[in-house]
Amino acid sequence: MIDDVPEEPSKSFYIFGRDVAQIPCFRNSFLYGISGGIGVGVLAFLGTSRPHLATHIGFGSFFCGTIVYWMACRYQWSARRFEQQQLREAMRRQAMYEGTKVERELDIKSA
């Protein structure tokens, strides 16, 4: 038989008592920020051959890229969540009004 080995619980990273794996957009924002910062830093070094300046440019692009992607992702996430809440409420109302006089009146108005 197959040995039943209990799965090891995933180790999460906590900041201020909050699991960052549960924060929407956190992972992607940091991955894009890190990769963009490294790429821009390397290109700055290749262009200027000044490691101190390239480090500053790389870190600045990491910071700006992370913040910009975070804001864009969170905006899209909030818009999607709002639309889902509206749809959930509309579906609840539809189920409540189904087969009643109110549904027929709404069908006449929407036609």
From TrEMBL:
<keyword id="KW-0472">Membrane</keyword>
<dbReference type="GO" id="GO:0005743">
    <property type="term" value="C:mitochondrial inner membrane"/>
</dbReference>
<feature type="transmembrane region" description="Helical">
    <location>
        <begin position="30"/>
        <end position="47"/>
    </location>
</feature>
<keyword id="KW-0999">Mitochondrion inner membrane</keyword>
<dbReference type="InterPro" id="IPR022533">
    <property type="entry name" value="Cox20"/>
</dbReference>
<comment type="similarity">
    <text>Belongs to the COX20 family.</text>
</comment>
<feature type="transmembrane region" description="Helical">
    <location>
        <begin position="53"/>
        <end position="72"/>
    </location>
</feature>
<protein>
    <recommendedName>
        <fullName>Cytochrome c oxidase assembly protein COX20, mitochondrial</fullName>
    </recommendedName>
</protein>
<keyword id="KW-0812">Transmembrane</keyword>
<dbReference type="Pfam" id="PF12597">
    <property type="entry name" value="Cox20"/>
</dbReference>
<keyword id="KW-1133">Transmembrane helix</keyword>
<keyword id="KW-0496">Mitochondrion</keyword>
<dbReference type="GO" id="GO:0033617">
    <property type="term" value="P:mitochondrial respiratory chain complex IV assembly"/>
</dbReference>
